[in-house]
Amino acid sequence: MPLSNPDRSSTPPDWTHCGHGATQEDPVGCRGIHVRGYTACLAHLDDADRDNYFDSFGSGFEIDHRGTAFTESLLSALLDRLYDYRAGGVRVGTARFDSAPFKGDAEFHSAIFERDAWFDSATFKRSALYGSASFEKKVGFHSAIFKGDTRFDSAIFRGDAGFHAVAFEIPVGIGPLVCAGRFDLSAAAFSGLANLRIAAPRLVCQRTSWSSTAEVRLRYATVDFTHAVFEYPLTIASEATPFADYNRRPLDEAALAGAPSAGVRLASLRGVDAAHLVLADIDLAGCLFAGTVHLDQVRLEGTCSFDPTPSGTRWRRWRPEWFTRRSTLAEEQHWRASRRGAMRGWNPAVFGAAHVGPAQLAPVYRALRKAYEDGKDEPGAADFYYGEMEMRRHNRRRTSRAERGLLHGYWALSGYGLRASRALGWLAASMLVTIVLLMGFGIPQDSPKQEATGTAPPLDGTVSLEIDKQDPQNPSGDRFTSDRFEKALNVTLNSVVFRSSGQDLTTAGGYIEMAARVAEPVLLGLAVLAIRNRVKR
Question: In angstroms, rounded to a whole number, what is the distance separating the alpha carbons of residues 443 and 501?
Answer without folding.
Answer: 12
